Amino acid sequence: MKRLLMLLLLSFVFIPIEAQVASARCFKPNCWGAIAINTRTGRWGWTVNWPSRAIARSRANAKCGNQCNRSLVFRNSCGSYATPRTFNGGYGWATRTTRFAAEREALRQCRRFNPGQGCRVRVWACTSRQTASAPPPPPPPPPPPRNQGCFAPNCWGAIAINTSNGRWGWTVNHPTKSRAHRRANAKCGFNCTRTLTFRNSCGSYALSRTGGWGWATRRNRRAAEREALRQCRIHNPGQGCRVRVWACTTRR
Q1: What pLDDT was estimated at residue 80?
Q2: Cα 128 to the chain's mean position, in Å?
């Protein structure tokens, strides 16, 4: 009876994981996936359909309990991981354009370094292959209403961003820099890592399809947007930078 229960448990543990369904988190040619593994224990984590390599690697490692020490990343394709039947530290992995090609190559690599050990596929994953263009960015926020919170030359605003997931928060018309900084971070859910502050002027934040970004402050909205896009394109050429948010203080 104990032996039967053990066999059933092993059969569930080693069933290859199905690929995630297509999502709207990424668009071709920048749909990234990753398989993270622990070479000492054989444990793994996987994820697909993220807009950048770094995000995919981070999410796969998180699903591995942040205990994995190697990562296989792939873009607009599939990845597979194989180990011997009794895990001994050996493994094989591969990326290919289809699931079956990735599995076949992972098994070949595993058998090459672990002959006669009965290699099996443990996990496979494929990104979606969406051909639609990226969705248009959300419309810029409307100009903030005038309020009694500040008076020139001390009207402060801020844009807070999270560089790992592209999230942002913004605010304007505060009497001090520190207050603007806190309010923008609060609107970002206190998860933002960088903050741009500006006084009696405008700020803008641009984001690329792969997670790269640029920002700037200028005297007016158009100049701030233009400079933010320029900064984004310098560091992320050909990645489709777009303005995600802009904000201007009043100038009373």
Answers
A1: 94
A2: 15
- Distance between alpha carbon 111 and the CA centroid of its chain, in Å? 33
Cβ-contact 193, 161 below 8 angstroms: yes
**Beta carbons of 222 and 203 less than 8 angstroms apart:** no
Please state which of the ranges 18-22, 45-49, 242-246 shows the lowest mean pLDDT. Answer: 18-22
SS (H, E, C) the chain: CHHHHHHHHHHHHCCCECCCCCCCCCCCCCCEEEEEECCCCCCEEEEEEECCHHHHHHHHHHHCCCCCCEEEEEECCEEEEEECCCCCCCCEEEEECCHHHHHHHHHHHHHHHCCCCCCEEEEEEECCCCCCCCCCCCCCCCCCCCCCCCCCCCCEEEEEECCCCCCEEEEEEECCHHHHHHHHHHHCCCCCCEEEEEECCEEEEEECCCCCEEEEEECCHHHHHHHHHHHHHHHCCCCCCEEEEEEECCCC
pLDDT beyond 50 at 133? no
Name the more confident of 156 and 88.
156
Residues 64, 34 contacting (CB under 8 angstroms):
no
Between residues 135 and 203, the one the model is more confident about: 203
Using alpha carbons, select from 80, 27, 69 the residue that is nearest to residue 50: 27
Q: Please, what's the b/e burial string for 205-244 (b: 16 or more CB within 10 A of its CB; e: otherwise)?
A: bbbbbbbbbbbbbbeebeebbbbbbebbbeebeebebbbb
